[in-house]
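Budget justification aside, the reviewers requested a transparent look at the raw inputs and outputs of the sequence design task funded under Objective 1. We therefore reproduce one unedited record. The lines immediately below are the structure tokens for a 152-residue chain.
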């Protein structure tokens, strides 16, 4: 019964009205062998739907092959989804590790640059002060220090 559909389902599948389905079935000579009635509801087989489908073959949806019922497809898609989720988690973990490594490297570089700049700044102060003293032109700090130490 899985390969049968109600007349309404067949009409929705083919994109036509229920009346069109009945008209097409009435035109077929062997229409009775493609129809079933269950609980007062008419059903049409997959073969009957293919016979009354007037769309060109390239516009028809592919018919499921053996082992491709909707439930089996859903189960297969769920398996593939689980695999993809695991792969995504692994990629996210790798990304977090790489970001942590990059952050550590950046912090190390920043620390090294700060030490370098501090060392250069103190070296610049020392060389500037000695240079000014050698030229006979003491820096403002040196002059202030000398002034307060002489008076005090």
């Amino acid at each position: 019964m899985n390969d049968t559909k109600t007349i309404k389902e067949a009409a929705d599948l083919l994109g036509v009205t229920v009346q069109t389905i009945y008209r097409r079935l009435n035109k077929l000579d062997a229409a009775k062998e493609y129809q079933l009635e269950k609980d007062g509801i008419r059903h049409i087989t997959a073969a009957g739907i293919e016979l009354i489908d007037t769309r060109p073959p390239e516009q028809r949806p592919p018919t499921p092959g053996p082992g491709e019922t909707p439930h089996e497809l859903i189960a297969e898609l769920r398996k593939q989804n689980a695999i993809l989720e695991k792969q995504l988690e692994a990629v996210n973990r790798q990304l977090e590790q790489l970001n942590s490594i990059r952050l550590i490297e950046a912090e190390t570089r920043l620390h090294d640059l700060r030490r370098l700049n501090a060392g250069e700044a103190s070296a610049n102060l020392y060389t500037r002060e000695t240079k000014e003293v050698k030229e006979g032109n003491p820096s403002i700090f040196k002059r202030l220090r000398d002034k307060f130490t002489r008076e005090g």
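The first strand starts at residue 4 and ends at 6. DSSP finds five helices and three strands in the chain. Computational costs for records of this kind are itemized in the attached budget.
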